[in-house]
Amino acid sequence: MLIIDNLVAGYGKVKVLHGISIMVPEGKVVALIGSNGAGKTTTLRALSGMLKPESGSITLGGKDIAGLTSHEITRMGLAHSPEGRRVFSTLPVMDNLLLGAFPRLTGSRHKGDVDGDINRMFELFPRLKERRTQLAGTLSGGEQQMLAMARALMLNPEVLLLDEPSMGLSPRLVEEIFVIIERLKKANMTMLLVEQFAAAALEVSDFGYVMENGHIRTSGEARALKNDPAVQAAYLGGH
Amino acid sequence: MQILMQLIVSGISVGMIYGVIAFGYQLTFSTSKTLNFGQGEALMLGALVGLTTINFLIGQQIGTFWAYVIMLPVVLAFGALQGSVVEWLGVRPAMRAKSEAGWIMATIALGIIFKNLAENIWGRDALKFPSPLPEASLSFGGIRIQPMEIVVVVGAIALMLGVEFFNRRSIYGKAVVATSNDRDAAGLMGINTNRIITFSYALSSMSAAFAGVLVAPVTLTGATMGAVLGLKAFAVAIIGGLSSGMGVVIGGLILGITETLTGYYISTGYKDVPGLVLLLIVLSLKPSGLFGKAAIKKV
Description:
heterodimer, A: 38% helix, B: 299 residues
């Protein structure tokens, strides 16, 4: 469970988030939608410690993680599949996956069955299995996206943040990614999903939050938001 | 022809030393985009600490060869510690302040301090370093090679292969490579990238200290031995490319061999010129180095 309360963050003097509050309940999927520049990616960056929040609290499993560094937050069980995929391009697919399990392999997180989880990832993303010895930089965009998601999952996270998993992918691949998100949801993965494809995001989610200029404009059950005329007009028309 | 071969062979062992020091530049540059301009001083300190250690051991009635072997881990540990200090005092504050050039000034300043320190401890004169192997040259078809020159080449290659093996096989080595690839993304893997950067500095100075005790029995040691070697290795790192481990070895060999050739065929007075000319040519034609990947600076 992830609770964000009155979070303020920005870059230098430019404030991007003006006190936002979001709750991601255990085992649920929450969609964060909004237009470009609304602050969705900044929210995720502040959650995972890539950006230091100015104020507000972020509670992960009962502990306040606001202001910790990203490696500390990751070790506490928050995985972030970042915008732009950010795979380790000079390393093979297999090493990227192992690095996702770095805290488990180095004793800062319960180890569990790392090999078994790699096989689970190969089952979830069969293309990665075919490409497992290939350097990540040589993968296609869709494959890199799958790798970024699989790498984040290798943490065995309490909460998974997904930033624009559909960005730059062909419609067929977008569909494939959403099928995988659906499967993760069935396996009770707690997720906060940032998406431009608002309709598809709300479809797989339990709850939704609509962001505008660094504020939460409206929120509620995903189904209700989908049928809200104001939300439809602003965000669902195009897709 | 025989003279040419002789010059090339001598150039190779000099070149490998440049290569190892340049390899050290590359280690820290890849993880932090910074490097230690006091790398030559790290080499000098390694050699002098090695000298004191080996003389102490010889004083304990240990033979020179074994004294050298026992000295190695002491020097490597010292180098690692010295590198960590440089990172902690000189580089980390500048990186925290997001200063573009602070680390340059800080590492140069630390280098000067280390040199002064060494002058006060070991004096200003060049000192003889006991050779663990016979100094008489071996002859291979008329080409003379000092046994220590072979050790230089083998030792340098062993060090670089060791680091490469660590990077490929261990999860910590992979964490170093991940940090070089994308520091923020490495942090998201739960990797403490500050610690990785300290480690790369430790490894970098350790390589320099190792180069110091490899070269010391062939040349002489002294507080000033590092400056020129550090600078030439910097040229090698630029020629070979700061992003390529293979590049620094080849860059080192190119510089080592051109130097000995120029020294013989032109004049020892011009020995240092061709390397620097080569540096200027590479910088103007392929600024990322002969083997380097072009870096794209995102604005």
